[in-house]
C-alpha cells in the first residue's frame, strides 16, 4: 500500500539573512508564487524472519537461530532495534553483537538497513533445563527509524512501517499456533521475508522458531555368572548396565534378588549387604552418559543345595527418567500452553517387582537399541546357577593283626572317607559279626544289637574330603568257625538331602545297605572306588 502525502508552502519565503531583498519598481508584480508537491510511493517497510539450524537437538548440542532483517521499502531504515525473547530452559552461548538485557531478552542495534538490503544476526544457545521443552523463540523489530521521515510542521505526516508496529508486545503479531505444530505463522526460510505480511501474518516484523529436545531414556541390564560351581565354592555374578538412550541416565538403583539357598558375601561399588540372604542393593549409582556402561559384581555362596538350580535376578529398580519430564507451561504471549509429559524408560517398567518382568536370559548386551517390552524388559536379567553335587562315601575296614591267640581279641578299624563334593549328612555303619565271634566293645557310640550279631554306628556328617574311624573289638567263641570274615557297610547316608525333583542324588558308586554291590577288600581309602561302601576283612585265631 502507499501513503501519499503532500508538502504545500503557503507563506512568503524568508529573505536570506546575509543578503538584502531585491529592489523592485512599484509597478512590478508580487515576488512570490504557490507550488504543490505530492510525494507518492514513499514506503517504510522492514520484514523479519527467524530460523533454527535444526528442529530437534540433543541434550549436549548447541542451537543456532538466524535472524534475518530485510528492508522491503524504498527508504533507508535508519537505526533499528531487534529484540529476541530467549525461552526458559535455554542459555546464551554466543550473541553476535547483541546486548544481554538480563531479563531473558537480547537486543541488536542495527545502525541502518539500506533499501533492498538484508542483514542477518546469529544467536547460539544451549539447553539447560530439559523440562521446559519444546522451546519457542521469538524475535521482533521493537524499534525502527520511520520517525526520521515524519513531517512535524505544516502539513504533519507520520511515517510508520507499512505493515507492522514495532513494539515489545509478542501477542499482537498474528497467530503463531501451537509450539512445534505446522500451520501457524513461521517464516522457515530466510527468504520468506519476501512473503511476510500476507494472509494470517499481518505483521511481518516478528517471527518464531521452534525447537525440541528429543529424549530417549533407555537403560539396559545384563547379568552373567558361572553355570555351576563346587558346592563349597563362591559364584561371582557380573551385572552390566548400558545407557542405550540419548540423554544422561542420572543416578539409578540396581537390586539383585538373592534366591533362596544362596547368600551374598561381597559386592563391588558399595553394594548394600544388609539383607544378604534376600537382596543386594546399589543405590545412587552415578549417571551414565549415552553409550556408556558400568559393571557391578556380587559374590554368593550356597547355603542350601536342595534349592538348586538357583535363578538369580538383577533389575534396575529406580532411574533418573523423571528428570526429563516436561512441565506444563501456561499461555504466554506468542506461545500457547503446552501440557505436561511424563518420561519413562523406553522399553521397560522401572520398579522393584521382579515378578512383572518377562524372563529372558540375556548373555550379552542387546544390539538393538529399542526392545519389545512384551518380549523382554531389558532393564532386568537372570543368571541360573547350579552346583556340581557329587555324593560319595567310601569305607575301608582293617584288622590290627590277621592272626591272634585263641584266647585273645581282634581289633578292627573301620574308616569312612567323604570322597564327594558335598558334606555327607548323618550316615550309618553296620558291622555284621561273623559266626563264632562275640562282641567285646566299640568306640564312637557303636552298639551291639540284642542278638549280638551286628554293631551299629550312627555317625555325624563328614565334610567333603574328611574321614572318620571307628573301632570294634571281638573275641572268638567257636574256633571251628575260623577263619572269620568280618564285613562292615554304610547302610544309610544323607544323599537324599541333596535331591531335587529334577536332580535326584545318591552315592555315586555304591548302594547303601546292599553288600552285594560292594565286594572289594580295600586296605586303604586311596584304593576305594566303585562299590566301596563295604569292606570285608578275614582273620584267624
Structure characterization notes:
The protein is an all-beta fold and 541 residues long. It folds into 3 domains: 46-213, Immunoglobulin-like; 219-387, Immunoglobulin-like, CATH 2.60.40.290; 393-539, Immunoglobulin-like (Sandwich), CATH 2.60.40. It is built from no helices and 30 strands. The chain has strands at 5-7, 37-39, 46-52, 56-57, 62-71, 80-85, 90-94, 99-100, 105-110, 118-127, 135-143, 206-213, 219-224, 228-229, 234-243, 252-257, 262-267, 279-285, 293-302, 310-318, 380-387, 393-399, 410-418, 427-432, 437-442, 447-448, 454-459, 467-476, 484-492, 534-539. The protein has a 6-stranded mixed beta sheet, with no helix packed on it. It has a 5-stranded mixed beta sheet with strand order 14-21-20-16-18, with no helix packed on it. It has a 5-stranded antiparallel beta sheet with strand order 26-27-24-29-30, with no helix packed on it. A hairpin with a 5-residue loop joins strand 26 and strand 27 (454-459). The protein is rod-shaped. The N and C termini lie far apart (141 Å). Residues 1-26 and 196-200 have low confidence and may be disordered.
Amino acid at each position: 500500500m502507499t501513503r501519499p502525502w503532500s508538502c504545500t508552502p503557503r507563506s512568503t519565503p524568508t529573505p536570506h539573512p546575509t543578503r538584502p531583498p531585491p529592489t523592485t519598481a512599484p509597478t512590478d508584480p508580487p515576488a512570490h508564487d504557490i507550488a504543490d508537491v505530492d510525494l507518492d510511493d514513499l514506503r517504510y517497510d522492514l520484514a523479519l524472519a527467524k530460523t533454527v539450524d535444526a528442529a530437534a537437538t540433543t541434550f549436549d548440542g548447541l542451537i543456532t537461530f538466524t535472524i534475518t532483517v530485510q528492508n522491503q521499502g524504498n527508504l533507508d531504515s535508519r537505526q533499528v532495534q531487534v529484540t529476541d525473547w530467549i525461552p526458559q530452559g535455554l542459555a546464551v552461548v554466543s550473541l553476535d553483537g547483541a546486548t544481554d538485557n538480563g531479563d531473558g531478552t537480547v537486543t541488536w542495534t542495527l545502525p541502518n538497513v539500506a533499501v533492498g538490503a538484508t542483514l542477518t544476526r546469529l544467536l547460539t544457545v544451549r539447553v539447560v533445563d530439559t523440562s521446559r521443552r519444546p522451546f519457542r523463540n521469538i524475535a521482533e523489530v521493537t524499534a525502527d527509524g520511520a520517525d526520521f521521515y515524519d513531517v512535524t510542521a505544516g502539513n504533519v505526516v507520520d511515517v510508520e512501517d507499512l505493515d507492522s508496529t514495532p513494539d515489545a508486545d509478542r501477542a499482537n503479531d498474528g497467530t503463531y499456533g501451537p509450539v512445534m505444530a505446522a500451520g501457524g505463522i513461521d517464516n522457515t526460510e530466510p527468504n520468506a521475508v519476501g512473503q511476510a505480511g500476507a494472509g494470517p501474518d499481518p505483521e511481518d516484523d516478528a517471527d518464531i522458531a521452534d525447537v525440541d529436545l528429543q529424549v530417549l531414556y533407555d537403560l539396559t541390564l545384563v547379568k552373567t555368572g558361572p553355570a555351576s560351581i563346587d558346592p563349597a565354592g563362591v559364584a561371582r555374578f557380573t551385572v552390566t548396565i548400558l545407557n542405550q538412550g540419548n540423554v544422561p541416565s542420572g543416578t539409578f538403583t540396581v537390586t539383585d534378588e538373592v534366591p533362596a539357598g544362596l547368600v551374598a558375601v561381597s559386592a563391588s561399588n558399595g553394594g548394600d549387604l544388609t539383607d544378604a540372604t534376600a537382596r543386594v542393593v546399589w543405590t545412587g549409582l552415578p549417571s551414565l552418559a549415552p553409550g556408556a556402561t558400568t559393571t557391578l559384581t556380587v559374590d554368593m555362596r550356597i547355603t542350601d543345595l536342595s534349592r538348586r538350580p538357583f535363578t538369580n535376578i538383577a533389575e534396575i529398580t529406580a532411574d533418573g527418567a523423571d528428570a526429563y519430564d516436561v512441565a506444563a507451561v501456561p499461555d504466554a504471549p506468542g506461545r500457547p500452553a503446552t501440557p505436561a509429559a511424563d518420561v519413562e524408560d523406553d522399553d521397560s517398567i522401572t520398579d522393584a517387582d521382579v515378578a512383572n518382568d518377562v524372563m529372558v536370559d540375556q548373555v550379552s548386551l542387546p544390539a538393538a537399541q529399542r526392545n519389545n517390552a512384551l518380549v523382554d524388559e531389558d532393564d532386568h536379567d537372570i543368571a541360573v546357577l547350579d552346583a556340581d553335587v557329587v555324593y560319595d562315601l567310601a569305607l575301608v575296614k582293617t584288622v590290627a593283626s590277621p592272626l591272634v591267640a585263641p584266647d585273645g581279641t581282634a581289633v578292627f578299624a573301620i574308616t569312612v572317607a567323604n570322597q564327594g563334593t558335598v558334606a555327607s549328612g548323618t550316615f550309618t555303619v553296620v558291622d555284621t559279626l561273623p559266626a563264632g565271634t562275640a562282641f567285646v566293645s566299640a568306640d564312637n557310640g557303636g552298639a551291639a544289637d540284642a542278638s549280638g550279631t551286628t554293631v551299629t554306628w550312627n555317625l555325624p556328617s563328614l565334610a567333603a574330603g574328611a574321614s572318620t574311624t571307628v573301632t570294634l573289638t571281638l573275641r572268638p567263641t567257636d574256633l571251628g568257625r575260623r577263619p572269620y570274615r568280618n564285613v562292615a557297610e554304610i547302610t544309610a547316608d544323607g544323599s537324599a538331602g541333596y535331591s531335587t525333583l529334577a536332580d535326584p542324588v545318591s552315592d555315586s558308586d555304591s548302594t547303601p545297605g546292599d553288600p552285594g554291590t560292594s565286594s572289594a577288600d580295600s586296605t586303604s581309602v586311596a584304593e576305594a572306588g566303585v562299590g566301596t561302601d563295604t569292606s570285608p576283612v578275614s582273620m584267624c585265631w
